[in-house]
Amino acid sequence: RLTVLTSLVVCTYLNSGFYAHQDKKRMMDSTDEPDFSASGHMGLPLPRATGRDAGIVTKNPGNWQHEVSTRVTEHDPLSVASVYISAAVNQHSGCLSVQKCYHTGIPPLLAYGSHCTLCFASADASSNGDLVVRRTVIGHQTPISAVAWIPPFHGPAWSTFSGHLLSASADGIIKLWFVDSFDEREVAALHLSSAASPTTVTSVVALHGCYLDEVESRLFIAAASRSEVFGWSLSLPADAEGGVVSSAGTPPTCFKPLNRDPALCLALRVVRLAVPASSTDPLILLLVGLSTGQLEVWALAGGQGACELTLAGSLKGHTDWLRCLDCIQTHQPVSKPTTEGDVPSTAASAAQFLVASGSQDRHIRVWHMQLTDKPEISSAEAKAKGMELSLPPAYKSCSLFARLECVLSGHDHWVTGVSWAPPPLTADSRPLLLSASMDKSLIVWEPSHPPLLTTVGTALKDPSTPDLWLEKQRYGTVGGNQLGFLDCAWGDSGWSIYGHGFQGNLSSWSFSTTGGRTVQCSLTGHAGPITDLSWSPTTLGKDSKIPLPADNYSMECPFYLLTASKDQSVRLHGLFRTDGSGCSPPVSTWRELARPQVHGYDMNALACLDALHYVSAGDEKVARVFSATAAFLQRFLPEEELVRQPGLRSSLPSGAVQAALGLSNRATEAFPADDEEDEIGTTNAIESTNGGPPDLGDPLYPPAEEGLAQSTLWAETRKLYGHSYEVFCLAAHPKGILVASACKSSKQESASIFLWRTSDWTIHQKLSYHQLTVTQLSFNPCSDDLLSVSRDRRWALWKAVPKSAENEIPEYCLAHNSPSGNGGHSRIIWTCAWNRDGSLFVTGSRDKHVMVWDPSTGARVESPHTMSNAVTALDLGPPLPAFNSAAGAPAQASILLAVGLECGSIHLLALGLSGGTKRTCSFTALTQLPSHWAHGGGAVKRLAFYRPCCIPVQGEQQARFASGGEDGLVRIFTIQLSRY
């Protein structure tokens, strides 16, 4: 008996607190079977807000009070919250999976691998229906290559808020996770052990599993690696109430690996079939897609001691590598008896399912498979059922039939992913199939008639009517330089579809059975290690000529965050705001709003001059200057600000384009130069071409992947030549009058620091001191001082010579440098930072030490603080409330210090300061960020507090800082300082 309650508010505690979600919820008696033959079994789509806005300047931010964040750890005295996680999907097919829980009214969790990190995303009411990464967990030591949720035993209708997830990595390790609404726990770890070469470590290519019993305490797991298929039977103990606990019981049973050499095993699926009218254990089918194009079907008895696989048969047809598989099963009868003595006329007592296989031959083949009793049947009935496959002796009373349902041809390149729509399949329903291809398209296929058979082997459709599978919807991109899709999935109970792009993006579209479609918020991230990041200054014009007015504006949130990566791109992350929906409040979420630079070299460094200009350097000898476009301002700047600055858009290029084989972003419209630039000349200027403003897509949503890659480029205005080797680091003067740059070097002649005038982009001065590569440069935020640190284990402080005129650009000379002997660092100095008033600076080194220095004397302040690992990034934040660093000690002023280590962990410390004739300092460890917020795939490459860091938020003091690591993840955190 099924009861539908409408407008029921379901509150779920997700991450930072309780979020309300208004949807329909089905409530059923545990002894009754739900009837999915009724219309509407697909569920309801999530309510989505219509009022949306994305911008780099927030006007009246009080209307957007709630910022989506993850749950704060209870023991954290600083109340640190993660408000943004940018993580790309790894470049592997099968590296994302959507949880099968469709009856609850709660959107399922999307799990995917990003480097070594497992990311969990969902689109619930807390983000007004937009897909957001909720939490992460460091799952592996090497990049994740496969992720798969284990489907519920009773099908999607019986799923709960929790489930088991499989993940595998390049080192051949498979992990089983128990995931619920609050956290995730590792249950078991399995290791591949090749029979041919036990010492060889091979990457897991494909992964899947299924439950073997109703209480979901026994699992069968299969994994493919190169030419072998591995399998395990695993038991989980039950607690006193009969529920399965999240820890492994007896050791897993492993069967002998299948070796299909010389063929490669590229895809697999595990299907559990109940044997009709028998007490025999369920039949486990293992479907393996090979590089020969064959789909092999292996049978395994589902008993406790089963460990032998039997080849049931091979399904042929594909002429190239079989890249992807997916299955969908029947779970419920078509109709219920009208009287007690009746039986359903079309009861699906025989187990049957559909298999979709995609290949590099550009075709999709749909197979129908059915397990029945073995009665005497006629030749006509046998022909209708298809080819009979062989089964183990334990199932001699059963027959397994397979027949080709159809061949779908609609893609122009490799088919890389297939996925069946989530609603439970019934014998009278028409399943939807989603396919992804390297031709940059996603296609939804639908049959004209139900494709399943009755128990007697006859089709439900009229035999005289041809059964056609037609293209119902097509998604994707046309043109451009981006590559195709690696995988696809259904989300939001079948009302959304996801496409895994080759660059690591996760594009999202809404799906409607009536044919409508809308681009939704996508998940994006860097596909390579982060090398640098920078907050935008709070000025809108070059040389600080157009400051942002203070009235009615808030500096609570920065304009944007720029990040550079070895994936050869610079990305701009900003706030995206949505109105409330139902009982949900207005929210603000961080999104990638633009991709100013897509380069041909790995990016090494960047520095912001103001909100509309920045300088970047790839792994080349040239640094490049970029300017925002009028199209960017039109999209992301409030209209009142554009009216207040009427000449702002006219001073910028209309847009920017990049040639197919070029490295420069050429302006699509020339913009007038300043008088000073007219006098100097423009020998390094980039020639402009005529063209209209770019199309940034639906203004209610941030630009999709296609728009980010093609329509959000910034115009390159200058090239800075002079360095002998690849530029390694950059820094901008706080007033925007100078840019400092340094390159890779193995000798002093090429280790010089170049100072560039931003007025004409000529070399202002060269500073020589270091012997090896300068690793980081930093200007004093309150003066002209410049600090440099190097691989030669030295730091140098450059002070400005007194100026004769107020507006004169200063000349620099070496004021202080590292002391000789044991007073300085003993290993490479990776990082340095100033405090807010420029009264001290800190350095971090591979020797695990953090040292504080007095810029007035160049002397070290107190003894160094030793960390547990090499220090690779640090930054000084806002002042902390006075506190006692030790029992009985007087309160002292302190500064918040964030330190990132080579192991990926992030530590927050209080740097206590005391004045007097001799300055002293002390370090107090405040907290280490949880491991799931760390950069587990490598070192922390950069930490940066937003300045002004300390701002009032409802009576509290809040700090905001960003981190980027070698794992390619970008994270933004907020800290409630007044709670300390």
From TrEMBL:
GO terms for cellular component: cytoplasm; elongator holoenzyme complex; nucleus. Residues 683-702 are annotated as: Disordered. It comes from Schistocephalus solidus (Tapeworm). It is found in: Cytoplasm; Nucleus. Its main location: cytoplasm. This is Elongator complex protein 2. Belongs to the WD repeat ELP2 family. It comes from the Eukaryota. WD repeats lie at residues 408-446, 767-799, 822-863. PROSITE patterns: WD_REPEATS_2, WD_REPEATS_REGION. One of its GO terms (biological process) is tRNA wobble uridine modification. Pathway: tRNA modification; 5-methoxycarbonylmethyl-2-thiouridine-tRNA biosynthesis. InterPro entries: Elp2, WD40/YVTN_repeat-like_dom_sf, WD40_repeat_dom_sf, WD40_rpt. Keywords: Cytoplasm, Nucleus, Repeat, tRNA processing, WD repeat.
